[in-house]
Structure formats: structure tokens, C-alpha cells
Amino acid sequence: MTPARRLGIAALLLVIAVSRGGCGIPGLPVGPSGVTAVVYVYEKDYGEPPAVIRATISKIDSEGKIRASVFEEDTTDGTGEVPEQYKVPLATARDKGFPTEEVPAVLVVMAGDKSVRFMKAPKTEQDVMQVVQ
Amino acid sequence: MNSFDLIDPALLDAPSPEIAQSPDGHPGYTTKFEAEDTTDAVRDACGSASRSFPKALWIEPKDWETKARENDKFKTWPMNYSSRYTNQVPTHECTCHSLVQNFECAWNRAAGLSYADGPRKNFRYAKTRAVFMSPMSVYNRANPNIRGGANVRQVLEIAVKYGILPDKIQPNEYGFKHQLQGTQGGGNSNQSSGEWVSVRNMPAGWEETAKHFRPLEVIFPESYEQAVCLVLHGYMVSVGRSGHAIPWAQYLPGQGMAYPDSYNVTRYDSMATVRRAWGGAFAIATVTAPDDWSKPAG
Asked: Is A83 within 8 Å of B114 when comparing Cβ atoms?
């Protein structure tokens, strides 16, 4: 296979990934060791997180390496503000078109205080792990 | 905890334990309270926190079994977001124990915490980051007279307005500035028991801690079908019926609802009871969240 053909196939795969689930990879992906948190941002008026997603979030969190949680858009802290840990994930989600029927939820992957990857409305465990790892 | 297992008949539609175990033979959730707790009244008590049932949460009854199987597979019942029992015997604190179970479910659901077997007697899940809340911290304002119980409207209003204090027993050291015994009743290894504390004698500045533990959005089902849908989506649904208040936490197709009773045990309501008792029911949809889950009160 020529280098040009390899490049073409890679580009095609990237287009498929983006068109399938709105999977964004801004900049270089951070390796698993850099991932600190994953947040599923959703609006319940557009539906609950799928059970498999909730289960995957709980599974990731229980392993103790990455803090995983779900954030409903209307949640605040005790002072009425968006909790500090969710400000960037919420902003990232809104930047990707959340919340609408087309984008009812966004999974945001964090490395420290920066969002490094996201996926619109993941449906399966594989969707989540693809973005987290 | 499979939702298709047969219910032990001895635990189905059990008579109110409060009547049997209360020294004065009276329930904590009287028929007067039940009559007062209409959906409209409870909704009004929540003010801006009140939410109607979102259409996106509707599941056709023909699909309830399928959803139940999914919850069994993924452990996503409300029961799976409950890490402990509470024990009120022989007090009349039931509405507050039900409220606290509902709150803790919403908290754990948001924090990504789940418990494969739900609450278990004399057991604490290892490495849990759950926060145990104090029913007494709500009940003491709802009923300063101690005996006689409280209605759902009162306790929801208090929780939404003031918040709930953490119990003195916690699975981790969270550095809380204010805590309160969970119950004047029996308690257990996951719930502290102690003397009555009136609102006036609460720890100074308690409001500063309680405000971090408040329901933000409360959904009020307008039919028993909507109540079932909420449970299928992982929301606990608190109801008052038959002299006692409890939180529905797992739908058992063709049989009824399972709930973690505030007597260290799981019991069950039949579908006939579910159809009769849903009025005035509520599900806490969202609660305050901290800046850091390891520091729940900041």
C-alpha cells in the first residue's frame, strides 16, 4: 500500500468517526495517564443517560484512576453557582451544540482543568472507552 | 435483586411498622397527612424546585419489562444507588428517612457511585464516597413535638429551603464543620442514633453546611405510570401510604415495587398499592453538587 493510499484511508476513517458520533479530537490526544476525569453532561428534558452509559461511568469511577460522573445542566453547588469541576465540561458541551434534541448530551474528557476530547451522545460502553482511553 | 424474582409474600404490603413498633401505637404518617399531601400541595411546597414529569422520560408500559431487564443487567435501579439502610424504630421519622434515601440516591447517581446489591444490613461498601445524611436535621423542624410524624410537604419544603445536615457517621473523613445524629431511633452501623436536638440547639452556623446538600429539582408524577417510569430511569419515588412513608426503588414487573424500608430491610408494595398510593409522590431529580466530590461541603 502506498503512503498516499494509507493517508487516504486514514482520512476516510477520520471522516467516518466524526460524522458518526461527532467525536472531536482537538489538538493531540492525551494518553490515558493524562486523563483525570470524564463527565457526561446532559439535560434530562431531552432524556436520561442510557443505562449502559451510567454503568460505564460507575465502572470507570470505581476503578479509582479517573473521576467519572454525570452532570445535569441545571445542577449548581451550595452557593448557586456551577460547580468548579463542571465549568469547563459544561462550556465544552455547549460549544458543541448542547443542549438540543440533536445534541442532548456530550461526554467530555478532562486532563486537569482542560477538556481534551469529547463525544456527542455516546450510546455504548465502547463509545465511552474509545474517547477515554 | 433480579426484578423478575418472586416476592416473599411476608414482605409484600406489610402493615406499617410504625404502628406495631411505636410506643403509642400510632403511625408517623397519618391519614390526615396523607390527605394534605396532594400533588399540588407538595409541588407548591417546592417552589422553584418543582418540575413536571419530562416527556422524554415516558416509557410505554409494553416496554417496562425490557427496561427492567436492562436495569437488572447494568445495575441501574434506584436501589443500586442506595448504599445503606436507615433505622427509625420506634420513632415517627419515616417521611424524613424516605426523603434522605431519595436524596442520597440522586447524589450517588450524579457522583457516579453505584452499589451492585443495594443496601445490605450491617454492611458498608468498601471505598465508597457516599455521604450519609441526617433525617433528624429535617424532622426536628418539621415536628418540634417529636412524636406524631410529619407530612411529605413539610419535609420537602425544609430540605429545599435549608438543606440537610450530614450524619455523624460517615464512610470517610470529609471534614464537615457541622453534623447531626441521624435519628433518635435505633440507627445502625451506617446511621448514628442520639438524643433529640431541637432546631434551636443545632450546631451554630449549621446552615453553612446544610446548604451544600439541597434538592434542586423535584419531579412530581401525575399518574402511577409516570411513577413507574421514574423508577425505571433510576429515580427513587417517595410516597406516603398506609401510615408509613417509603421510597420506591425497583419495579418488579407484574408484582410491584421494592423499597429500602427505614427498618433495616427491603419490603415491597403490590401494584394495587402502587396504583392507589402514587398521589403526592416525588422524585428528587438533581441535587447540589460540590466543586470536588472528595470535599462534599467544600
From this structure: no
